[in-house]
């Protein structure tokens, strides 16, 4: 009888340990998935990983111009860059310049005045009803879109780092 009770206790302990282990694994996996494709925001001593789902704030349309001068209008979902900074504790009024970098090391620079200009600079996660692709095939991503530029050189695909000065 006593041997049977010991086995029951051992089985219960194993089940509890397995349940706790599985819970921790699932929580870690969910957190990693949430940060998949996240953008790193750097401002002074502050560094924040911004998940892509935090960028899906509003729907809007805008016109861009490619290198040949052709204009096209697109529907987007995203957030204004200045609002993204403010929501992460970075005062847009204090920004002198912003450098953005893609996962493939392409960079673009913005002035603080451009950043603060309403309707000018956005970080988007959807374009024309389709998710913006990440650098890894099949993975979501984000893109910087700068409206009012004479070409799309500062529309940075595979956005990975936003550095504020």
CATH hierarchy, class of the largest domain: Alpha Beta
SS class:
alpha+beta
Share of helix, binned: 25-40%
Number of domains: 2
| Overall spatial form | elongated
By CATH's scheme, which homologous superfamily of the largest domain applies? Oxidoreductase, molybdopterin-binding domain
Helix and strand element order: HEEEEHEEHEEEE
Key attributes of the depicted protein:
alpha+beta, Sulfite Oxidase, Chain A, domain 2, five-stranded antiparallel β-sheet, 3 helices, 27% helix, 35% strand
Helices, strands, pairings?
Elements lengths: L1 H33 L4 E5 L2 E5 L7 E8 L5 E10 H7 L9 E6 L4 E5 H5 L4 E7 L2 E2 L11 E4 L12 E6 L1
Parallel strand pairs: 1-10
Antiparallel strand pairs: 1-2, 3-4, 4-7, 5-6, 5-10, 7-8, 7-9
Describe it:
With 165 residues, this protein is an alpha+beta fold. It has two domains: 34 residues; 127 residues, Oxidoreductase, molybdopterin-binding domain (Sulfite Oxidase, Chain A, domain 2, Alpha-Beta Complex). 27% of the residues lie in helices and 35% in strands. The chain is built from three helices and ten strands, in the order αββββαββαββββ. The strands form two sheets. Strands 2-1-10-5-6 form a five-stranded mixed sheet. Strands 3, 4, 7, 8 and 9 form a five-stranded antiparallel sheet that branches. A hairpin with a 5-residue loop joins β3 and β4. The chain is elongated, with a radius of gyration of 22 Å.
